[in-house]
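tool=predict chain=A
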Amino acid sequence: MPMHTRHTSSIEDRLSMVRLRTREGQSRRQAARILGFSPAWVRKWWRRYRAGGEAALQAPRPPAPGPLADFPPVVAPAVLAYRRAHPRLGARRAQVALQQDPALAGLPLPGWRSIHRAWVHAGLVTPRGQRTVAPAAAPPVPPDEPQAVWQIDHQDGLHVEGLDEPVVLQSVRAPAAGLTIGADVFAERRGAPAVSEEAILDALRRHLADWGRPQALQVDGGVRFLGQSQRTFPSRCELFCASLGIQVQQIRPGRPTDNGAVERLPQTLDGVLLETPYADLAAVQAALHAHVDLLNVHFPSRAKAWRGQPPLCRYPHARHSGRPYDPAHEAEVFDLGAVDRVLAQWQWQRHAAPSTGQISCATKNVRVGDAYRGQTVALRFAPVDRQGVVYELGTTPGSLGKEIRRFHCAAFDQDAILGTSARTTRAAQDAGGIAA
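tool=predict ok
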């Protein structure tokens, strides 16, 4: 009966074949019979050994499947050919071009992210290193005092009867005392990211004036709280709070229960918003103010520690945090040093535009020079003179090379952080009238 030959081999099998051939003088057929392989297998690996030694006995690793492995075979060459033909155009433009290619009609096509990964995998795009290093989060403020920590959140797309467009609800709670600090509505069909920063901060200013400043404001990753999702620059809310001695602390990503007290509040407020018709947004806001007062003063709490009492009856000392805030004197108590300490912890890398040699910093474009076109540079904030400083990259990760230039960025200034507040303007006018 003929012996069945094996079809797969290990490095040990190939080394055994070499020993049989070199030390014991076995022929190809004899070595194949002993090891259970075909003479053709012995011939293939013996030739590789003669050409490259033992290193050649290692089977070549199969190529990595790559980001486009699950697409039809014609897709990957088309993706790579587009980049070679148009090296200055990005993955989004390539996605559109592929969708319009008659040769690929009817085939499943990758999204722009997969296209970019395929270019990186093929060496057609050099991935940039980490461009921004945000400061490590400070230890969270423990809710030891009734108003030590406020939780804030947004709810989008609420359709209130009588209003022409959906509203955004901004809710604030102090969970340690069970207090509802406030609820504000904004007419904006596009959601919280489209509400102006001035409106968001003015609503917060009103609550600070009524209740005093908390030690911390606890937020999720909303754009109006922490800026861009990529965290490329500290948000205006962060800098505003830092100037008033309020720490902004972010909950864990994907864990809305960390802000559970304020996340549950819309279940209570929706009854006020959605079950009654209103003439205008001012009427909605007035109804919310009245309902917040009822929640704090008259509604018994179901929490065990409150013993069935309303929050301000259980904790009468929670009517104020003990850290006053007066919008009329906001600019006078603005702590520029605290803002500088936040900015100084950030580390940025920016890629200078190949055509102009410019980099971006907040709302400003900065020219670093023709010599740095297409290169990556480092960016820091210098508290000593309150300037942005551009450096060459150092020789080791995180180190800095030669200073290139310094520049002023208006986004770091007190006026830009405080903005144009209708509330502080009115408060200052009222204080001036009283003084007169």
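DSSP finds 16 helices and twelve strands in the chain. The first helix runs from residue 11 to 22.
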